[in-house]
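Async update (no meeting this week)

Hi team, since we skipped the sync, here's where things stand on the single-chain job. The sequence we agreed to prioritize is pasted below, unchanged from the tracker. I ran it this morning and attached the output directly underneath so nobody has to dig for it. Comments welcome in thread, and please keep replies under the output.
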Amino acid sequence: MSDRDGCVNGVGPLISVVMSAYRQPAFLNQAIESVLRQTWSNIEIIVVDDASGADFVEQYRLPPGAKLLIHDRNRATAAVNRNAGIHLSTGKYIAFLDQDDQWVPEKLAWQAAIMERDAAVLLTFGHYCRIDAAGVQKDKQPETPKLQRDLLRQMIHRNIIHCPSQVMMRRTAFDTIGLFDETIRGAADWDMWIRAAAHGAIVQDSRVVTFYREHPDQWSRQGMLITTASVRVMEKTAEWTREQRPDLAGLLRRRCGRWLREMARVQIRTPDQARPAIATLCRALRTWPGDVQALWVDGAGAVGGKPGERDERRRGRCTRSIDGAVRTRSSRLNCCCFQSACRP
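Output:
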């Protein structure tokens, strides 16, 4: 991709705003309004609709000049929509805005200034605050993460960028790190941030730039989707870092094991998923044998049990069986490794 700045009458480089939409016209219109309130004027808006249907699309209040792409079938992943928007974009910088989020008016101006100061910066992100479905700001707000010197290691340990709506990227960055991985449904953004951390500079702005809406229909509330995708991100990252950063191998195995444990937590809460949960726990132990907490699962879905029980386990005095009872270690059948689902 070429670095097309789109500068018009000295107002600054063109910024492409890529918005993914699906059957939430009220939220999308509010998000568009927050774009139109930006203090940065040189903007193009690109809305990619995931086959919502004519009844929904006709409710979109798109400003003149906005681009609208409608998929002919539902792809069920935001990565496809974002990639399509990137292909349609012409700006020097690309900012992503999910349909249920909103921006503060200075968001694009602040981030464009950061990118313009240093050509080595591939990505910048700001902080966020949470709002509810009605747009009311919640009382408890997340803390601003502090970037560490080894940003790749930090990003693997935890996705410190809460949502794509916080981010602005340089257009040419996609030539270096590629587009969003459309095979990772539910965590393709995390995979992108990890790759960006490995290939160029990332700058954090501690100011709030995004209002992140929490509501029941969010993908992030689908536990099985998120845990499965997170395991895939760890496995994929382990593949390409094997030669580049062999020092990360232990961390990746440990994090993959922990995400597998979280997957088992979701499964055990699902009817008729007890045996798959046991198999997932065994996979977690094979991935990271040092994760003692993965040895137990209780009927309430609490993998690892209570903190006091963890202390007892470290001293080798108790386990937690599938029915939730705490037993002595001598009752070996309570350990998932001795369940029939784990036998070769």
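Quick observations from my side:
The longest strand covers residues 201-213.
The beta strands are 15-21, 43-49, 67-70, 93-98, 102-103, 121-131, 167-170, 201-213, 319-320, 326-327.
Reply here if anything looks off.
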